[in-house]
Amino acid sequence: MADFYANTYNPDVLSCLANLSNDEVFTPPDIVNKMLDLLPQELFSDPTTTFLDPACKSGVFLREIAKRLLVGLEGQTPNLQERIDHIFHKQLFG
Fold first, then answer.
1. I want to staple 72 with a disulfide (CB 3.0 to 4.6 A). Which of 45, 47, 59, 92 is the partner?
2. pTM value?
C-alpha cells in the first residue's frame, strides 16, 4: 500500500498551493490529519460511514479521508479497485 501512496501523493504540491492565493485558505495536509486523528478511528473501517466536505476547494480533507478508508477497509474489501470504487462512489461527497 505504501507504493500506491508514493506514486500518487506529493505533499509539496499541496503545501505550495497553500501559499499561492491571497483570498483562499488551503488547509495543509498535516493539519487535516491532526483533525482526522480526533475522530473515532473505527469510522475509517466502516463501509457505511459517509463523509461530506461542502467546501472542498482543493480536496485535501477528502483525499486524506480516502487514504484512511483505503487502509481501514482493506480487510473487508481486499480488492484495491473495488475498495476505491466503493469509497469514491458511496462514502465521499464534496
1. 45
2. 0.77
Q: For 10-55, how does the pLDDT look when each residue is reduced to its tens digit (9 = 90+)?
A: 555 655 555 555 667 788 999 999 999 999 999 999 999 999 999 8
The predicted pLDDT at position 36 comes to 98
Contact, 91 vs 53, CB < 8 A? Answer: no
18 vs 24: CA distance, rounded Å: 8
For the chain, the domain total comes to 1
Which domain covers residue 44, as residue numbers?
2-93
Residue among 3, 69, 66, 56 nearest 27 (CA):
56
Query: What is the sign, positive or negative, of the torsion defined by CA atoms of 57, 35, 84, 48?
Result: negative
Of 55, 64, 52, 72, nearest in space to 28 by CA = 64
